[in-house]
Amino acid sequence: MAKIKHNNFLDTVDDVISNAKMAGVLHLYAEGNEFKGRKIRISARDLFHFGTTGYLGLEQDERLKDAAISAIRQYGTQFPLSKSYISHPLYRELEEKIFQMYNNPIIITKNSTLGHMAVIPCVIRDEDGVILDHQVHWSVQSAAQILRTRGIPVEMIRHNNLEMLEDKIKTLSSKCNKIWYMADGIYSMYGDFAPIAELVELSNKYPQLHLYFDDVHGMSWKGKNGTGYVMDVLKELPENVLLFGTLSKTFGASGAVLVCSDKLLHSKIKNFGGPLTFSAQLEPASVAAASASADIHLSPEIYKLQNQLADKINYFNFLLKNTDLPLVEYNNSPVFFIGTGMPVTGYKFVQRLMKEGFYVNLGLFPAVPVKNTGVRITISRHNEKAEIKSLVEAMTYHFPLALEETNTSNNRIRRAFNLSEVNSQSIEKEEDLIVQYENSINKVNKEEWNKLMGKKSTFDWEGLKFIEEVFKEQEKPENNWSFHYFVIRDKNFQPILATFFTYSLWKDDMLAPAAVSSKLEEKRKENPYYLTSYVLSMGSLFTEGEHLFLEKSHPSFKAALSRLHFELEGLEKKLKTTMLVFRDFQADNYLNDILHEQGFFKVNMPDSCVYDNFSWNTVDDYIATLSSRSRRHFMKDIMPYEEMFDITIEESPKQTDLDIFYDLYLNVKNNNRGLNTFSYPKNLFEQMVKNRNWEFIVLRLKKKFFSTKTERPVGVMFCYKNLNHTYVPNYIGLDYGYSEEFQIYRQLLFQTIKRTKALGFLKVDFGMTASFEKKKVGATVRQQTSYVQTRENYSIEMLELLPNESR
Predict the structure, then answer these.
(1) Distance (Å, rounded) from C-alpha 393 to C-alpha 570?
(2) What confidence tens digit (pLDDT) does each residue in 620-676 have?
(3) How far apart are CA 686 and CA 658, in angstroms?
(4) Nearest to 449 by CA among 434, 468, 462
(5) CA 416 to CA 791: how far, in whole Å?
(6) What are the chain's domains?
(7) What's the rounded Cα separation, in Å, for the pair 328 and 646?
């Protein structure tokens, strides 16, 4: 099979960020001749600043400014040498002060990202292993990726899931010397904490476990000498813990700091830690400002500043508790996240707050799942209580208006974040829409369904009845599906939208590169359901093509699409799915924008192929319809081999032949990791024999070409006949011992076209994959996309960690 094109993660991120930029809430420029921290000027308006990460406001402290200015005048704008050779004169003093703060050996780095790139590959040895919290900062994850090239296992757990962490430790314990768990002290989006005390207990239980914390958001506003949240819990730094703090953000200057109580390990890192050796050192102004900040941290003043900030954080918490705003985490950190669910609601809410005079951050994919978009609000010492109160009043007023504007509700958002619901009236706009929901095609009008959805793939009314009957009461969970049908009509009972969804178990790597799937299949030999998820998907894994009827000329078509999404959210909650998928769309920019706003991100699907040029009557006429290149291919690779086969169309093959057909199907299934799904049960093919709409195109090599005396099938196409209009070669089976020599796959493609012509049908739905081969026989290739909404990003990030030799 030809290689499948895979979605580029960066393309998805680009789409999301581009939409936010167009909404005017991202990639903005601050204006003005000065900046004091309390306000920020955007588009000629001064807004109260609730988006800073300088929580103590030290970046505006006159002592830091004076130190930076003096250093520039004395030493210049930079000291352009690697620290491996020589540090400029101010470095020694800074290092001594930071050492006093932590009372442990430290290393100053240019910033935390370069620091992780320097430390992680140096500290983690070839015999070690790594486990990442899936919400640990991108800079840690990026640095950990480097380890994979050395064959070091890099695993991932769901956020703060200690049970999963312990399972991973047990798995790695026999393979690894040290096992490093990497997490944030405080997470930058939701403001929640790592379970430090529990992690220390776990490291006592498993001495192999070492802990690596990025605590840049916990720095300064917490802990003795402002050493951060992690140190506030630990009190003393054990040798099995590495800690990163920052000299930026709340510290008020630039740079980052690694703290390491293991003196031998500290020496190794300092001697050769990648960017530590080959990157430029901090500028004199940054070092001087950091040194001035360190003086504050080493004085009683730091506790006064911490208490002032804590008072404002507590005040904000108090005000929020008297509202219905969906605050994702209640804690005493300066980071707050108000969920909006859909990106479009986030855009509208931020826009409204900016017009009201408040600047806040929008938290969106990939920092959070697309459907978990929200507004990140940070409290700093710059903020006065009066404007904090005004912000809460503005949010309380504008939040329901943003919900109404985007046709959603508070409880709908709360469900997306697994928050308790509130007793508030739904804000979904009433539309003159009638929703018919059924759990079986038998309850749907056959004539209407076929009019709206027939003549495509295998999902006319009879085709869906067949699929329903097969995928129930099966032995394995992956072959038990539930079906969900929607028809949405206007008040005159005219259909605007029709579709169906299936709830089934998917492999998370279904569309991942083949190399990734091959790696996972090795693990699935021990655990068949490793990295699998229950998905609510438009269409089914058995069907392909345009699964959505949408009357775009109807004035309520967008409302119907929104109503479908609302109905699906309720179904998701009931079924406890991890992913919602809208499948197999042709290029449609308008639909693309709507689904992005609803919290979906686009994924490129394998190309689909259709053959519908039946203007010919003879094989010679058919050949004449092909391009010159395809004609040469046909004359060389298809036509000469046709006479080598006995070709039959079978509706009721013998059981012995059906057994062979199934084995041939498994050959192809197990050879194609590019579209990695579970294998279908044998009784699916047995039911095909009993159904009048199914038939088998069978190729048997003539005896003179066979290596054994017993003639047997070497190729089979499993074909569905849809309403005397569309011929659907759903699946194929091949004997790879003869396939290449006798061009069996290409012969089956041609025989499928011939059979369709003989039946008088008008179209062949060739489906996905192998588009290059199908194009050679005259098929039209159609690019397809799907749209995915995930409950979390864990599976996406986990797959990114797996080796992929094809990249």
Answers:
(1) 31
(2) 999 999 999 999 999 999 999 999 999 999 999 999 999 999 999 999 988 877 678
(3) 7
(4) 462
(5) 7
(6) 31-59+303-416 (3.90.1150.10), 62-297 (3.40.640.10), 433-604 (3.40.630.30), 609-786 (3.40.630.30)
(7) 66
